[in-house]
Amino acid sequence: MSALGGAAATVTACDTDPIEKLIPILVPAHDIIPGESVHYATTCQECSAGCGMVIRTREGRAIKAEGNPAHPISKGKICTQGQSTLQGLYNPSRVKGPVYVANGVKKAIRWTDGITLLNSKLTPLITQARNRNRILYFSPPKSGSFPGLLTSWMDQLGGGSLIELDLMSANSIKKANDLCFGSEELPHYALDKAELLLNFGADFLETWLNPIQMTAAYSAMHSLKNGIKGEFIHIAPHMSLTGSNADEWISCPTGTEAYIALAICDALLRQSPPKTIPKAQKIRKFLDRFPLEQTIKSIGFPSDKIEALAKKFKRNGRSLAIGGGNSSAGKNASLLQIAVNLLNYVAGNIGTTVLFGMNYSIGGDDLKKIESAVDKMKNGQVDLVVIENVNPVFTLPKSLGFEAALKKVPFVVSLSTEADETSLLADLHLPTSHFLESWDDAHPRTGLYTMQQAVMSFVPGYDTMSAGDLILASGKAMKLKGFLAPTYQEHLKISWQQVQKAVGNQQPFETFWIDSLKKGYVSRAVTPKSVSLQKAVFSTQPSPPEFDRNVITLLAVNSNLHNANAKGGNRNWLLETPHPITQVVWDAWLELHPKTAQKLGIKQGELVDIKTEQGSLQLGAWLYHGIAENTIAVPIGMGRKVYFPGYVTSRGRNKLIPILEPKGSTRVKAKKVGENLADILPWELDTLSGDLCFTTKITSITSTGKSADLVTMDGQYREDIKTDSSTLAKGLADRSQKGRGFIQSLSLDSQNGKIIDEAAKSHQLRKRYYTLPRDDKHSFYDPMKKNVSDHVAMTAKTTPIYHDPYKWEMAIDLDRCTGCTSCVVACYAENNIPSVGKDRAALGREMSWLRISRYFEKNEQTGDLETYFSPQMCQQCDNAGCEPVCPVYATYQTPDGLNAMIYNRCVGTRYCANNCAFSQRRFNWRDYQFPSPLHLQLNPAVTVRAKGVMEKCTFCSQRIREMKDIAKDQGRDVRDQEIQTACQQACPANAIVFGNVLDKNSQIYKLKQKNERGYTQLPELNYQPAVTYLKKVNHDNKKA
Amino acid sequence: MRKSFSGVWATFEYLDDICAAIQELRNKGYAKLTTHTPCPRHEIDDALGNPQSSIPYFTLAGGIVGFGLAVLVIIKMTLNWILPVSGKPVVSIPIMGPIAFELSVLIAIFFTIGGLFYLILRDTWRHTRPGSKKYKSYNRFMRDRFGLVVPCDLDQIEEVESIFKKYLAEEVIVEN
Amino acid sequence: MSQITYGSINDSVAESMLPPGRRWIIAFLFILSALSMGVFAFAVQLRHGLEWSGISHPINWGVYITNFVFWVGIGHAGTLISAVLYLVRAPFRNSIYRASEAMTVFAVMTAGLFPIIHLGRAWYAYWLFPYPNQRELWVNFKSPLIWDVFAVSTYMSVSIAFFILGLIPDLAAIRDESKGVKRFLYAIPSFGFKGTNHQWLHYMRGYLLFAAIATPLVFSVHSIVSWDFAMSGLPGWHSTIFAPYFVAGAIFSGCAMVLTIMIPLRKAFPGFSAIIKLKDLDGMAKMIIFTSLIVTYAYTVEFFIAYYSGAKFERALFWFRPFGEMKWYFWLMVFCNCLVPVSLWFKKVRSNIALLFIVSLLVNVGMWLERFNIVGTSLAHGFDPFAWGNYTFEWVEIWITIGSFGWFFMWFFIFVKIMPSIAIAEMKETLEPPLRNKNA
Asked: Which of B122, C53, B28 is nearest to A910 (CA)?
């Protein structure tokens, strides 16, 4: 795809035409042609990982966010959060322009007035003596040129402190690396190089560091290739999506991960001959200071397991231990990192799977800085607080008292794009542009500089200004030194001259600039630096394990859909998309172990009241085997106000009384979704690094006896609610696929690397389903082809000949799929799928064309439950059930083998949906709204469906159409991989392959020919699906 | 009526009387009789010599037309746009069954109704009936009276009249 | 009980057609209000989409299709009684066939509404017909729904024609019974029928042919309705027993409905109790026993086949029906359709009007539930366990269902007042004709 230059964006800048214009640009740029999409390369600012993005724009509007294929870190993928950034760009909660709050009265003002107002507060500061630090600037972590500009701005204003706020900051890792290896940085964890991955609680497939990078590396390491497949062991109190992908999940009480790691390290030392490891004795001595033996005993962790793990881990540099994440973020966070480092060191992984010198810039400042900032605000040592696109009032634990402190500050300026909980307290709100509308850059790691360009003009009707331009303007107005650049873009150019030097580029600057705009980044080769174990580490004081088997611990957990920074908490894609494990939508919940639930007398789906010292919350109970006993997990980052149409609901009403939707009753309202866990979290920091503790003790937990009305997309959930906790306690209610073979698996004998068909062993997955020999389908196609062409000839019609030259098919590798739901969000974004909200979802009216079926299968050898994921979309059957039953030909088989859906012709008998064995068709039970300005995100290439019409996945036929047209213009056939479906494009694990199966050189063809793991679902129905699944491969017939 | 009616008509209270009267009249060679009965009686049919109706031919014709129509329509319409659905042949024979059957039934019914009207009108045309007000407004034929109309020449009137009297007709009216 | 004569039949029928009394008016107003509920609900549905019907993914068909099959089923008894029993000359037919034929016509008229009501875009219902259009877009004849369109519309026109044909002599009789404007009005639909031998000759033969054709039509129509389900691949639908099973069910519910209507009718018009004799009702009751047995057999066989086939989907479904979360519909159905009719084996029950009425009502309920079981549970428990669902009734579909009864009874109430609800001519046929010397 062509990532065209920023010239267009410069032309389109500062433009607020009304949205009625077809192309909202004063002078249409040369490269904007109606009906053709233009792609711009930029950098994702949703988190600080700095993934490369390509934004697809149509008629000057961003409509789809995708990964930049060339980007060294993200390699063409972005996470659910990154994709939902479009809903940040077009979020109804955005502020239309500058707002000044004069004694409680909001007043819209002009930008010039806004800046003068801001400066009027600043100018007094200039005259005063230096370094009085009367300014606080809160911003999300930024690694580019902006912080420099900002600091010079603040320094000339008598100094101030910039606080980069990120609750998931990974400073414990930096701290530990500083102590252990004297290099305070985030190293590069080469998951793909490892054979064994030992993970202490890090949710690296969800939010830890850069989940996209991790997922890609993980699937490279963990997927089967020529008989070899990496192993992944997850040691944590909470299984989470990450743990559910592991080959083994070892549950441990919260806060004891560090000790287990140290114990393993200890065992490793004992197992290996002393001489081989430098400083072995010192480490020995260090370890002896920890009460390892009794701790391991007291938490009931099998000691032989420790030995076994140690034995496994010894692979001379081919293993990797990582740790972190919310579930282990307690007072011992840094200790865990130290333990992990020692483990890696002893196993000789430093320099092979752990590479230093990369210095990733992920995460924000040491949160102790916040603490002191709050103190300063309380004590009135602050004149001005500027808050840009962070939401501390909402995200920081209430016990810190940030809000109260903020109220003490004489003047608060918010530069946030959205009217979030914090900016409501500001005296002056100068809304900055979304990062897709503004210029900036980033420096994600050593030797990598990425460009963030404005991909479109300002969202029509939203009068904003980029943070850079704002600071520049203010500085210029105050005649500060070095504030000369006319725009921030110019300022960037200046700083990028340094970048050009840094990467050693010899071209003239303009070409370099345009090239890097097109590419989206520039980089230079980095050689990892070698490190040695420092003695500083041995001086760390052993803190006791915070473990008490009598109290229940609360874990504040992240997932792909929500995290502690709560940035996506008000985007309906992320709320509508079911959480991978629980499948809950539009709500927060409370995971607890059935045994614990039984002890506490809590039933599945009941509303539970939990209390900590800080407060209490009411959440729905979700009984789940994937969590340690005496532990409960609650998603953090929920509870934001979401703008959503107020569809009337019949929930809990008398079904005989009419429910009407009078005019205006469906107007968009801001509604709170879920509960904000930060309300009841204590302000506790890791002693060494100052990372926030996401674990705390529960003072009381009681069931209210009421139903919580949790809405899950799992069709068997209602059954669970009825089963009592005791049944759940032993093996849970049956949420398996009932042996219907949607997900099939093989077993890899790790001894001699042989693949064994499950048939040999007794396993739930293998029961009672039929497998037919996979023929090439010619037996089926050819008669059909002949019949059609005969009739075409007979009637002298010009219908194209069947399956020539294209027959689109798809393959999904279940061994790679991690269930991250990135594809689901991509599908929502690409195909204009409306969000229906909680009540509709409860009726089963969610419109998702692509769902990830999640099954808990019982392994009859171990007796454990195993989690399996399978992406399910329309299978584009060649012998489809839906086609013949449609009375009006609204669905039929296209010449290139798609299962077409003709919305205009559909009368809505819904027979097709009934006859679809995969239940993939979705019906429009009403007209759904896209609250303005979210409607600007709609993809013009896809019809927005009206009420009473059936819809479903068609392999992104609009993308197929686009590429076919281009190919036709160039007088050739479509090349393999030219067309990527939205789900395929988004899949960070590269589990989805799509292409023309008639092309002998296509990936899909080769894969279907060569790969012996392929199977189609429900073969006994002879629907001849076009989607081939590749069997999951387990180690020794076991997984988590 | 084709030509002005001349003849005798009578009403009977009892079925056996009118049957006997019909018998004798037919023996005397009076052909074009018209009877009135509240409901169909086989005694009357017997007396009249069990004439047969030719309706079934209409029905059969209708059935055949309907079947052919269905098959034609289906083939024509499927070939108009060639839209393959799930690997089924474009023109598929088995699926014609239901529609072919239904259509043949429908058309057969229409033909039957048409035939019914045609035949009744034809016979009524052939058999003249009195034009008098009294005859037209006589309203017990559909209730409980039997009627018999005998068109005849003036010289035969007495004879017919006497036969009616003989079989105790309720009332005998002569029209000419 | 006075001796029935040709005259007395005319009188009692004419009496039933006297201008309505207060009871009739009140009842009729009640019916109209029910109907208007349905109309209002449907209007809301057209405006907002199927939002307020309980139908949803994966149960994409629900109450509407259930109602459709239910009403079509009722629509079958009429033609069955008038045609099949006519061919086999069943003695208990004549007195009740006119009313049951009317019931057929109105039931089919009601049933015909539901496929339209259940459409997502009802305003395009005409697309289901192969009407000539300039783009030459035709329908998909491979779809069972199209077969349905043809079957139901054919059945409706045939049963209406059959109904009117049967009416002609009786309307003529009524015409002769009445004077003035009324006489003139009845003269029009009686096509100058005078009961001449020519008229009777062709009329009777034509009627016989009608009966002969209508009989296979009855069976074909409900078979085709059953194929709406049987032609799909869904466990619980994909079954070869469906056609006979549905036909039996249709007759079953139809006979029940006949009783449900006849018994009040008999009560309403004193004259009728002499004509609609107990033994006629008794005959209907026996039909119910017979069909109930067939239906029960079908239920059992379904379970056996599910077990015997070994197909896991079938087995799972037939476990789900009696024991799953929708089990109450199933057990209620078994009670109404299999157990209640057993009571009819006893002569006492058959000859007790009140009990007979209650039984017939229960059977109606049971047959509605049977259809809901077939539609609902099968869809709820499809192939992919992850996509299983449950059904909740919402107000629009409830109101529309109530409205459909209003619609049906509105027509029936009008019918009894303007048309002879007893077949006069045929009743006369069954009587001893007036003979001078009986012994002869």
From this structure: C53
Q: Which residues of A touch C57 (CB under 8 A)?
A: 844-846, 913, 919, 922-923
Q: How far are the Cα atoms of A231, A818, A868 from residue A223, in angstroms, in the given order?
A: 9, 11, 15
What integer pLDDT is reported at residue A29 of this predicted model?
63
Query: Taking the alpha carbons of C193, C194, C195, C200 in that order, is the dihedral positive or negative?
Result: negative
Tell me which chains share at least 3 CB pairs under 8 Å with chain B: A, C
- Please say whether the beta carbons of C110 and C38 come within 8 A: no
Residue A772: CB atoms within 10 A of its CB come to 10
The packing angle between helices B55-80 and C197-230, to 10°, is: 30
Q: Which amino acid is at A942?
A: V
Chain C residues whose CB is inside 8 A of the B139 CB are 175-177
DSSP 3-state assignment of C337?
Answer: helix
Q: Would you say the C-alpha torsion C309, C314, C316, C317 has a positive or negative sign?
A: negative
Q: Kindly list the distances between the CA atom of residue A89 and the CA atoms of A8, A25, A418, A432, in Å, as whole numbers in the listed order.
A: 19, 18, 9, 11
How is residue A929 annotated by DSSP?
P
Subunits adjacent to chain A (3 or more Cβ pairs under 8 Å): B, C
Which DSSP string do the residues of B13-76 spell out, in sequence order?
S-HHHHHHHHHHHHHTT----EEE-SS--HHHHHHHT-----HHHHHHHHHHHHHHHHHHHHHH
- Between the alpha carbon of residue C154 and those of residues C87, C104, C220, the distances in Å are 21, 13, 11
CA distances from A795 to A788, A821, A993, B75, B79 (A): 11, 47, 38, 11, 7
CA-wise closest residue to A455 among A469, A441, A436 = A436
The answer, yes or no, to whether residue A21 has pLDDT greater than 70, is no
pLDDT tens-digit series, residues A408-465: 999 999 999 999 999 999 999 999 999 999 999 999 999 999 999 999 888 888 999 9
H-run or E-run covering A354: strand A354-360
Token pair of B166 as six digits: 């003989």
Looking at the predicted structure, is the pLDDT value of residue A770 above 90?
no
Contact B151, B128 (CB under 8 A): yes
How do residues C168-216 score in pLDDT, each as one tens digit?
Answer: 999 998 898 888 888 899 988 888 888 888 899 899 999 999 989 988 9
User: What residue has token string 């603040």?
Assistant: A154
pLDDT (mean) for C109-132: 93
CA B172 to chain centre: 26
Give CA–CA dist B135/A328, Å, rounded. 110
Q: Each residue of C375-433: pLDDT tens digit? A: 999 999 999 999 998 898 999 999 999 999 999 999 999 998 888 888 888 888 888 88
Interface of B with A in 79-98 (CB under 8 A): 79, 81-91
